[in-house]
Give the backbone structure.
Amino acid sequence: MAFDITSETSFDVTLTLGDKKSATCHEILMFANTETWHMETFYGKGEHVLTFNMPSYDEQKDVGLTGISIFNSCYGIVKETESIMRFLEMFVSPTQSLEIPEYMAREDINFLWDSMGYDVQERVGAPEIDIDPLTVKSGDFFGITRLDGLNPLIMYGTGSHIGHCTTALWFDDGLYIVESQGNVLWPV
């Protein structure tokens, strides 16, 4: 693989693919960073050139700082279909409820184990924790994990065991837990 900057706003990625492992094998590659992503499927060997455009300053800066990551798959059509179905189960709920169905939580836990080796433990019988607000100080951090598909992907992408962050802040009228988010799954 080679990277070639072709202008201030674009670069080429040249891939040289070898022989296939089997007749049904094909490469599915996802190129991604925090600003962009692109998926491409390759069926044959040889040289393949992809051009990535980075028109915005943020895209250019991100590629300049962190490059671009490549994720691949070569399982064959049956395993890939199964993988896609399991992936969708991490996100798809039959209702618009904020509740997470058991199958979604199970697939999220499986994903965290398969992708990160993270063994999520259920807190069976653990007591509810009642925190005295007077013990909380401005700046205290609360890490959250929600088994909703998105949080496990954030955990995988960042290498973390949490998917959402909140911070405690005292104002004149009391204690607030503040966060930065724009997702309908996290109500105010």
Remarks:
- The chain is about 25% helix and 30% strand.
- The chain has two domains: 2-74, 80-188.
